[in-house]
Amino acid sequence: MTHAEPADAGAVQIAGGIADIAALIACPLCRAPLGxxxxxxxxxxxxxxxxxxDGVPRLAITGASESWGVSQAAEQSTxxxxxxxxxxxxxxxxxxxxxxxxxxxxxxxxxxxxxxxxKPLGRSKTILEIPCGGGRLTPGFADLANLVxxxxxxxxxxxxxxxxTRLSTPAVWMTASAFHIPLRDRSVDGVVCVRLSHHLPTxxxxxxxxxELMRVSRRFVIVTFFDRYSLKNLTYRLRHPxxxxxxxxxxxxxxxxxxxxxxxxxxxxxxxxxxxxxxxRYALLLMAAA
Length: 290
Known about the structure:
This protein has helices spanning 78-81, 87-99, 106-118, 155-164, 203-216, 231-239, 253-262, and strands at 34-36, 40-43, 49-53, 56-57, 124-129, 145-152, 171-175, 188-193, 217-226, 265-272, 280-287.
């Protein structure tokens, strides 16, 4: 059975089949409708083909700005995209948040922040989480939606998350790039995108990311960035005056607000993960019609 907009939490089975969102997906290359077979997905327009391997639709288009026709600078995020291709490296990344002293408690704080942003917006039919990683943050908001789409460019993260999920909310898992989200315009209520923008070294990549997140969303986007003027960044630069450049690829609130406006949204809220120990900021963008 195909569901464009699931009516309730029981309407979609937790099997994670891509057919459950057949009315929402689109070719990541040309955005045309997709046909779904038993172990393949085919674009009805450009005839691009995508495999379904071990139950996971492989819809990720890798590459940086050259993949959407923009000249690529010397720095790019392609190496980062391939960092968690195997399940062992994905498991190690997710386990760090349970065993490393500096990361203990971070997951709980992040889940509470996401929930604080989402709860006043009311229930959603469908939320996309990209990158989903191993599903570390999903329990913080999954019960606020009828269906969650879990997507990550790295198949290792998707495989790890799918194998370890304990969600009661129906979920569909797939590989996908946040630069080429395989969904139709305005196909989901909202998008959660955590810990990605500060890995993108060029303005072209950041603009593409924000544009894609807002393209597929009807109501809201939650996205994180590393604040250039955060205490964490400022103290780092004071301690290392000759290293040249920030410890992470930073953005300002003004830059985030400008990207939101360019995509037809407004920057509604910004909240710190931690005022002292972190430069990460959570931003809530509300689409114009929301």
